[in-house]
Amino acid sequence: MTENLDIESDNQAFPKQSQQEPGLQSEMSPIPNDGFKEYIGSGRLKNQKAIITGGDSGIGRSVALAYAREGADIVLNYLPEEESDAKEVKKLVESLGQKIKLVSGDLKDESFSISLIEQAVQFFGEPTVLVLVAGKQQAQTDIRNLSTKQMIDTYATNVFSLVWLVKAAIPYLKNGSSIITTNSIQADSPSSFLVDYAGTKAAIKNMTKSLAKQLAPKGIRVNSVSPGPIWTPLQIVGGQLPDNIPSFGQDTLIGRAGQPAELAGAYVFLASKDASYITGESINVNGGKK
Ligand code: NAD
Ligand code: MG
């Protein structure tokens, strides 16, 4: 449960800014709200063991902090350039008395993806939830500028790694465990400048449903979260067109971008016993944007 989140209700413009991919949350202005101060845990994920990708910043970070507040231990994946953001998460999680292991590495690499699962099992035994949040998004207004490298990197990060991680995790996932993927409003309403990215998110949403069917007999639930415009590093490292940054998120019904903290509850819910009869679903957290 998130209480008294400090969010401006009026439509304040974000300052124009850019960083190199993958970017650091600590250098953003304003720094995204990860909900650490406001989230109140009540043991909903007690004894759970979560592997979280993209957990250093943005949505993944707020998920990691809320999971820790709910009693879960965590293995956190991120890219080596993001070590400083990841170390902040480690400190915060440990301050709550939960265990956390940082495992940096590139999910585009199949052997690393497999080793992430193996390292997690060595650290805390069998995971109970696999939370896939890592993602790559680069805007290109003209398909003639969409390079084969960008296309391959976007699909490898967002789609191929999902398959590699799930394949490696299945032998360890017991009856009652779950997998949570991250798609996007782009899966259903693609922007003109996100041809490759939006395609990966549609794939993830679809694969969530086929995996739910395949894994239900093993007692593994598979669900997804579909964020709308959320203030995170992804947007200011080239994910969004620079001119769109100031008014980012103002085209939603709620009239502002979401903060990462506002996503944590959906991921907690899907991993918890409250969602024991939910599989193959996607939860929209998008300010009412269509
Ligand atoms: P973010 O930049 O904080 O998180 C993305 C993370 O992906 C990075 O921190 C990085 O650790 C990880 N990552 C990227 N490439 C990787 C690689 N090759 N190997 C390992 N890790 C890699 O931004 P975010 O917005 O919190 O993104 C989290 C997820 O939310 C992504 O899947 C994104 O597509 C999705 N999403 C975001 C928005 C939004 O508006 N921010 C909207 C819809 C969906
Ligand atoms: Mg990051």
Topology:
Elements: E1 49-53, H1 58-69, E2 73-78, H2 83-95, E3 100-104, H3 110-124, E4 129-131, H4 148-169, E5 178-182, H5 195-215, E6 221-227, H6 233-239, H7 261-271, E7 282-285
Parallel strand pairs: 1-2, 1-4, 2-3, 4-5, 5-6, 6-7
Helix pairs in contact: 1-2, 1-7, 3-4, 4-5
The protein binds nicotinamide-adenine-dinucleotide and magnesium ion.
H and E order: EHEHEHEHEHEHHE
CATH topology name, in short, is: Rossmann fold
- What structural class do the secondary elements suggest? alpha/beta
Straight-line N-to-C gap: 26 Å
Radius of gyration: 18 Å
Question: Can you count the helices?
Answer: 7
Topology, number of strands: 7
Quick one: biggest sheet?
Answer: 7 strands, parallel
What is the molecular shape? globular
How many domains make up the 3D coordinates? 1
* Secondary structure: helix percent: 25-40%
Give the class-level CATH name: Alpha Beta
According to CATH, the homologous superfamily is NAD(P)-binding Rossmann-like Domain
- Across the major sheet, the strand order is 3-2-1-4-5-6-7
Mean pLDDT: 97
Low-confidence runs: none
What proportion strand?
A: 5-15%
